[in-house]
């Protein structure tokens, strides 16, 4: 009787492996003409052992669509993503996450894909481990400690580089559509890693946009995209601009305003700018320059950072940026201010 159950379980694993493998290949062909970096396949037993059967004590972060766990495979710490099939609108999104992650793994500012497991109803994704985990909604880390300005600026610069690569490195422009702090992991050296590529969509060669349903997180969705459903590079530029404002202010994209009424960070920033100032926007911790710090240099960097963020979100629609490459170059310049 025990053998019979074991065989039945093994057959189910094999069927899932074949079905999920076929869907993954279809996604790779659709997105990258089948071209991909090697993707290692882990067994379900390896995943369950690494996470103590998906124990709550192993959870790094939890969202409606998936849960990130920490684990150890072959004496190497890893991050493992388990999908929730109940909330996922399209199962192909889980496979797109793998296909795009495999292509992005060569970039130092993308969370490196180590492999996946196809023996569950939806694939589990195995990635490198990032010691500080993902940022929280207000741009901080789980310990609650305030990030120094240099780290915030570094994170913005590195994620801009990652998004630029996503937009330009492949035959078709790929748009992330879900850039927000919780999709940015940070390792022990404070190197930022972009993750969660499941909402990605490719703009066909020769086209300026692709039309699709609105995807993303409230507060980070480009208003033009919301009303027209046209996906362009501006969708990611806008979201990235909001991320910059989150890093600068230490506030979530939607936070409790006066009377605990939900308020958009974008609206808050706009109101402050209309008054002709900007100090109210900036997290007070940013002005802590420490011994021997240069407050004049810090202020110049912060002002330039805010101006760039406002251009990304098209504040007053004046002087918008041309693309993520310009944003990445500008952030490198700001970092080198002397």
From TrEMBL:
Domain Protein kinase: 54-338
Any single GO BP term: defense response to bacterium
GO function terms (MF aspect): ATP binding; protein serine/threonine kinase activity
Keywords: ATP-binding, Nucleotide-binding
Keyword ATP-binding: yes
SUPFAM superfamilies according to UniProt: Protein kinase-like (PK-like) (SSF56112)
An example Gene Ontology CC term for this record: plasma membrane
Pfam families, per the entry: PK_Tyr_Ser-Thr
PROSITE patterns registered for this protein in UniProt: PROTEIN_KINASE_DOM (PS50011)
Coiled coil regions, renumbered to chain: none
Similarity-based family: Belongs to the protein kinase superfamily. Ser/Thr protein kinase family. ZRK subfamily.
Name of this protein: Protein kinase domain-containing protein
Organism: Microthlaspi erraticum
């Amino acid at each position: 009787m025990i053998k019979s159950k074991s065989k039945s379980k093994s057959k189910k694993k094999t069927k899932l492996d074949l079905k999920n493998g076929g869907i993954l290949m279809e996604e790779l062909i659709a997105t990258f003409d089948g071209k991909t970096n090697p993707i290692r396949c882990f067994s379900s037993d390896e995943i369950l052992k690494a996470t103590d059967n998906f124990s709550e004590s192993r959870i790094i972060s939890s969202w409606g669509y998936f849960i990130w766990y920490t684990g150890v495979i072959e004496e190497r710490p890893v991050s493992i993503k388990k999908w929730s099939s109940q909330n996922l609108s399209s199962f192909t999104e889980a496979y797109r996450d793998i296909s795009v992650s495999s292509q992005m793994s060569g970039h130092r500012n993308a969370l490196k894909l180590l492999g996946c497991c196809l023996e569950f109803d939806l694939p589990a994704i195995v990635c490198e481990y990032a010691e500080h985990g993902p940022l929280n909604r207000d741009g901080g880390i789980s310990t609650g400690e305030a990030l120094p300005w240099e780290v915030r600026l570094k994170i913005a610069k590195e994620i801009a580089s990652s998004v630029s690569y996503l937009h330009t490195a492949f035959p078709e422009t790929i748009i992330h559509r879900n850039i927000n702090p919780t999709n940015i992991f940070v390792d022990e050296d404070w190197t930022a890693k972009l993750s969660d590529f499941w909402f990605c969509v490719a703009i066909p060669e020769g086209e300026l946009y692709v039309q699709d349903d609105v995807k993303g997180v409230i507060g980070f969705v480009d208003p033009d995209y919301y009303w027209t459903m046209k996906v362009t590079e501006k969708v990611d530029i806008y979201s990235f601009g909001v991320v910059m404002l989150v890093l600068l202010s230490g506030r979530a994209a939607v936070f409790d305003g006066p009377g605990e009424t939900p308020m958009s960070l974008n609206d808050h920033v706009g109101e402050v700018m209309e008054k002709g100032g900007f100090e109210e926007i900036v997290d007070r911790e940013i002005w802590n320059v420490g011994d021997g710090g240069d407050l004049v240099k810090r202020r110049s960097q912060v002002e330039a950072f805010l101006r760039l963020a406002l251009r990304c979100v098209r504040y007053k629609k004046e002087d918008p940026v041309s693309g993520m490459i310009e944003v990445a170059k500008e952030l490198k310049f700001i970092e080198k201010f002397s």
